[in-house]
Amino acid sequence: MMRKAWAAGVALVLGTVAVTAFAASDAPPPAPNGIVMPEGYKDWRVIALSHRTDNNTLRVILGNDVAIAAAREGRTNPWPDGTTFAKLVWKDRTDDNWEAATVPGRFVHAEFMIKDAKKYAATKGWGFARWLGMAQKPYGEDADFAQECVACHTPVATRDYVFTTPIQLP
Amino acid sequence: MMRKAWAAGVALVLGTVAVTAFAASDAPPPAPNGIVMPEGYKDWRVIALSHRTDNNTLRVILGNDVAIAAAREGRTNPWPDGTTFAKLVWKDRTDDNWEAATVPGRFVHAEFMIKDAKKYAATKGWGFARWLGMAQKPYGEDADFAQECVACHTPVATRDYVFTTPIQLP
């Protein structure tokens, strides 16, 4: 009986830890503009990838179903409402077994662009949000942080404010 | 009547062309070792990415459901039977709007590793295959081409012959 009660106690504690860990990793606080991290983005498909030598990062850009359909059908200027991109960024690391290969090192952040021409009219039709590091700390002091995103994306205003060009495959 | 018959003829020809084009882009000839291109790989999820400066290429490595589950659960040495990786490779291109960003240019090839310890015992438990360019031409003169793959992967024998380390995400 003692053994059973002990086992039940351990199961309870482990269960609580599991639930806490799940909640912590799955639902970080919203961005200062109220955007909630899109669910399930880790399972989205690839839109593109890039390597930046100005800040030594590797990036993969994923898209939700709306984004993938639009990319494959060439409906990208403008991207349709409902398009969501997740850009995942890592610091450069030299591969342990291939010295001319740069691979993902420390995780830097996950950032998102959500298209809704009406809802996000104040930020050029896109909702911007970013969560920093493995701790997923929301980026920005207040809701105005997104004007910084807009400023950086303005050089590609004629591409619906999107730098990314979708990959071409056979 | 003449016009209708002509239109029907054109439709028939166009239909044939469309079917041929679809077949050509969707089902390239098998690799010389008999491996058939895995279906639906463009919809697989991301395992990792890399940038190689020895041949100036960007790569994204996708995994089928078995590979993704194994990667997320840390069952990667050995990878379980049924694991399949698709590595998609493009030549470097400088982004038109961000000069310090390297992005995918010309598509080079899609290559695959399929784990089946018994079936592919002669090539270290992995079936290797590669299709070149947008034309998806099978790589290799005969079935022995895969020994070239094995030779290149032998430095990572202690990693189940896999160079790729799965990305870490929050």
Structure write-up:
The structure is a homodimer of 170-residue chains. In chain A, a hairpin with a 4-residue loop joins β1 (45-52) and β2. The first copy, chain A, is globular, with a radius of gyration of 20 Å. The first copy, chain A, has two domains: 1-28; 31-159, 3-Layer(bba) Sandwich (Chalcone isomerase). The longest helix of chain A has 25 residues, at 2-26. Chain A has a six-stranded antiparallel beta sheet with strand order 1-2-3-4-5-6. Chain A has helices at residues 2-26, 65-73, 145-153, and strands spanning 45-52, 57-63, 84-94, 101-115, 126-132, 137-138. Chain A is α+β, with helices and mostly antiparallel strands and 170 residues long. The model of chain A is unreliable at 4-24 (pLDDT under 50). The interface between A and B is large, with 43 and 43 residues. β4 of chain A pairs antiparallel with β1 of chain B.
